[in-house]
């Protein structure tokens, strides 16, 4: 099988695994912090084993450590948002990270966005407003705000990953460990250890986090950035679909319209900036996945 095709299949497998996050989190009757602690611990084990097999040395440089903090914040906030609002709003609103990257570049690096970037921002803002209006009627507005914060945190991960001293895999591993430590008190308070939540938790940590990152990292070695961005676009579509099928969580019309606007706008943005002649704005993968796929670094 050609390397490009096998790489694309790895990216597809990773996206499918990432998309199970919403339904697995919904099915576990624990607090968000407890769930995140356990899944991060399990995910860190798998990622650590992968790094050892690949002889990828753990980096402890400044940008890596700050990136790890942002990653820990992202996974924690995403888990909280999934518990507090609909799975669709949680993933779609976090999916706005590339827009915050663009804004951060403008504010901190004086890279003024182009007209097309401004238009993208306006469409994303329109989609967010639709999601918020839907949540006002259902009382999930706090969860939507947490999801937006997750998007901002993930934008920080993406910004730091363009540093020459960055190491995405090290930041991911350390971020998982920080997320696990942050939720330990909540984890120790849980008392429901029935088979179903335990199996869901095992799948969440080993498959949805650990194995997904392994597939994603392997796929990046031979898959063009444009293909990566397009294939990864299935995650925010499938995530709420699994929840609707297996958890009976359905969306209102405004939420569906808002999600569609955000996804189309972000995918268009991703496609444009994954092109060979794109600007210096860093590429970002869908939330829960290592951002800046073209620059995922292997330490020597």
From TrEMBL:
Protein name: EamA family transporter
Keyword check for Iron: no
Superkingdom classification of source: Bacteria
Residue span, EamA domain: 6-130, 142-267
Family per record: Belongs to the EamA transporter family.
Native species: Yeguia hominis
Short name of one Pfam family: EamA
Cellular component aspect of the GO annotation: membrane
Sequence intervals crossing the membrane: 32-52, 64-81, 87-109, 116-135, 141-162, 169-188, 194-216, 228-247, 253-271
Region (Disordered), start-end ranges: 277-300
Lineage summary: Bacteria, Bacillati, Bacillota, Clostridia, Eubacteriales
InterPro entries given in the database record: EamA_dom, EmrE-like
Keyword entries, A-Z: Membrane, Transmembrane, Transmembrane helix
């Amino acid at each position: 099988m050609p390397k490009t095709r096998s790489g694309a299949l790895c990216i597809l497998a990773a996206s499918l695994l990432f998309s199970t996050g919403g339904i697995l989190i919904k099915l576990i009757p624990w607090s968000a912090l407890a769930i995140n602690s356990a899944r991060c611990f399990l995910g860190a084990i798998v990622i650590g084993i992968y790094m050892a097999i690949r002889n990828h040395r753990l980096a402890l440089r400044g940008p890596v450590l700050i990136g790890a903090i942002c990653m820990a914040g992202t996974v924690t906030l995403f888990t909280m948002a999934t518990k507090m609002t609909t799975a669709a709003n949680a993933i779609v609103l976090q999916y706005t990270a590339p827009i915050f990257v663009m804004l951060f570049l403008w504010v901190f690096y004086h890279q003024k966005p182009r007209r097309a970037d401004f238009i993208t921002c306006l469409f994303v803002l329109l989609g967010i407003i639709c999601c918020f209006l839907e949540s006002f009627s259902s009382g999930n507005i706090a969860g939507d705000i947490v999801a937006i914060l997750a998007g901002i945190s993930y934008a920080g991960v993406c910004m730091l990953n363009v540093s020459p001293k960055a190491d995405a895999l090290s930041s991911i591993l350390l971020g998982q460990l920080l997320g696990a430590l942050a939720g330990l008190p909540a984890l120790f308070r849980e008392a429901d250890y029935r088979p179903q939540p335990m199996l869901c938790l095992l799948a969440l940590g080993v498959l949805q986090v650990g194995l997904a990152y392994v597939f994603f990292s392997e796929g990046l070695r031979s898959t063009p950035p444009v293909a990566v961005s397009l294939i990864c676009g299935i995650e925010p579509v499938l995530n709420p679909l699994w929840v609707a099928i297996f958890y009976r969580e359905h969306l209102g019309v405004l939420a569906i319209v808002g999600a569609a606007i955000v996804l189309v706008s972000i995918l268009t943005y991703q496609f444009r900036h994954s092109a060979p002649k794109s600007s210096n704005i860093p590429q970002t993968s869908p939330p829960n996945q290592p951002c800046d796929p073209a620059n995922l670094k292997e330490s020597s």
